[in-house]
Amino acid sequence: MATVTGITAEKFYEEGSSGRELAYAETSIAQGGITSIVDVLGLSIDFVVDERPVMVEIYSPVVYADAANTNVLVAICDEAGTIKQQSGFFFSNVLDSNEVIVKERIETPGNYTRKVRVYRSAGAGVVVHGITDPIITSHIRAVEL
User: Domain 21-144 has what CATH class?
Assistant: First the structure.
């Protein structure tokens, strides 16, 4: 067993490192036609928070709208659809796109469900989340800190 400054590798992992992935989901399918708040298909996870805090992260490599002057929000929501954290952006040009990362820290022990929701908050554009490509995926994950 390797020891670093008196701490075994096992002890370091248990008390000082981050990284144990509790839940993960991904999709490589585009979801279009979004004009109101919708769940992103396939991006929902269930996990348990024990003593250590957990970071929930969503990553969406491509989000765009088909009309200029459109506001878009990408959110982490609970099972009831309540927004827990979100990122918003404004598309000033047609087919502008953004890469989105949203994070939520959870410290209270318990059972949790988190899902990704996307919605147009202003403007007339139709929003598309993701791109249909086997390599470019959107994901949601929960990792112990």
Answer: mainly beta
